[in-house]
Specification:
The chain has one domain: Rossmann fold (3-Layer(aba) Sandwich), CATH 3.40.50. Helix content is about 25%, strand content about 20%. It has 11 helices and 18 strands. Helix 3 links the parallel strand 5 and strand 6. Helix 6 crosses helix 7, helix 7 packs across helix 11 and helix 9 runs antiparallel to helix 11. It is globular, with a radius of gyration of 19 Å. The chain starts with about 30 loop residues before the first strand and ends with a strand.
Length: about 375
């Protein structure tokens, strides 16, 4: 018999006192010719609702290899529970139609240990096919080609699926992959280039987007989940938001995610929590900080998922004796040696801003109040 339980996880969690957001924020100029959809994809039809599927069998922690059959079951059960449908096919058809051109926003920055799992990506493409979307209308995308080359999704997906990046690598500031008509302008630290443009793929080709981030900590935001993956992964010139100990990620992440057409076209959030990184993220060049939550979360609300993610990362850091992602004490700040972040989990090189999740909620992107987030757990 399946072990299945519907648990209001947050009812048992201690509530955290609201943290006051700063009154002085950067001034943003948002330029886009795109109007919002009647029902924007974020927060979508299920605001504040998260389905968390868990299985101890989903990954072998010795080999780091995921079990494709278990992943398929986790996604199938999760999608049915999210939508209330009796079959996965019906659940997927709520979001996608044969005419859609679908982008899958993966996360490749945690190569080689923690990237959007091949098994999740391939199963998503298979389910899209069942909904009538052919592989030729599916794009796997990321900002940087060198990261996509490292992860190499091609052997795991149909040959018709296109794998697209906006730039060759995170160095050259190439602009051809970005749309000059859609951008956010803001000056943070006196930088010369104050404009961040949305990818052309997002603005001019895609009609729907599936967001597949990972469970990872981040030195500037505290955690890098749904919001940061879709925002920083779809715009140019974003790393300028955090520099020499200070961060403007609090407002920049949500601001980018709210820009049309990205907001309306991002219709499904699939948090890959099979593996995770509790320190040194968003990278994972060593397995020193890798851990295994062994879960997949499904939602249309990126804020609700990321609010849960903050707790997952912070709880793991606490269990390892590391400072909290909420710790903003400057005595832990060391900005003159970037290697310190990777070698010492009690060092910050940026004052982290996990409040970016709460700020995104003020923009209408989802529910950040834990007492109002409904979490249903499914054990596989």
């Amino acid at each position: 018999m399946d072990r299945r339980s519907f648990v209001r996880m947050l009812a048992a969690m201690p509530l955290v006192a609201p943290r006051e957001l700063p009154s002085a924020l950067p001034r943003y100029r948002i330029v886009t010719p795109y109007a919002p959809a009647a029902s924007p994809g974020m927060p979508g039809p299920y605001p504040g609702r998260v389905i968390s599927t868990h299985s101890d069998r989903v990954v072998d922690t010795t080999t780091n290899k995921a079990d494709a059959a278990v992943v398929q079951e986790m996604l199938a059960r999760g999608m049915c529970e999210l939508t209330g449908d009796s079959t996965p096919a019906a659940a997927w058809k709520r979001f996608f139609a044969p005419a859609d051109v679908v982008g899958i926003k993966v996360n490749c920055g945690g190569y080689p240990y923690v990237v959007s799992a091949y098994e999740i990506v391939s199963e998503v493409i298979r389910r899209l096919g069942e909904a009538g979307v052919p592989p030729s209308q599916v794009f796997i995308y990321e900002r940087f080609q060198n990261q996509l080359d490292e992860v190499n999704y091609a052997p795991h997906v149909p040959p018709e699926v296109r794998i697209v990046a906006a730039e060759s690598r995170n160095q050259y500031g190439e602009n051809s992959g970005y749309d000059p008509s859609v951008y956010v302008e803001a000056a943070f630290f006196g930088e010369e280039d104050t404009r961040s443009n949305m990818m052309r793929l997002v603005t001019r080709r895609l009609t729907k987007i599936i967001n597949i981030p990972n469970v990872k900590d981040h030195g500037a935001t505290g955690a890098t989940g749904c919001l940061k993956n879709i925002a920083y992964g779809s715009f140019s010139n974003v790393a300028r938001s955090h520099f020499r100990g200070h961060s403007h990620t609090l407002s920049f992440v949500g601001t980018l995610a709210s820009v049309e057409p990205l907001r309306s076209r991002t219709v499904l959030q699939i948090m890959d929590g099979i593996r995770g990184v509790w320190h040194g993220g968003p990278f994972a060049r060593t397995d020193r900080y890798v851990f295994y939550p062994k879960q997949i979360m499904l939602a249309t609300d990126p804020v609700a998922v990321d609010r849960l993610l903050l707790d997952i990362i912070d709880d793991k850091r606490k269990s390892e004796g590391a400072i909290s992602i909420w710790n903003r004490d400057e005595k832990y700040l060391k900005t003159d040696d970037g290697r310190a972040r990777d070698s010492d989990p009690n060092v910050n090189i940026i004052i982290r801003e996990p409040r970016h999740v709460e700020y995104a909620s003020t923009l209408g992107l989802g529910v950040a109040d834990r007492s109002k987030i409904e979490v249903e757990e499914i054990a596989i």
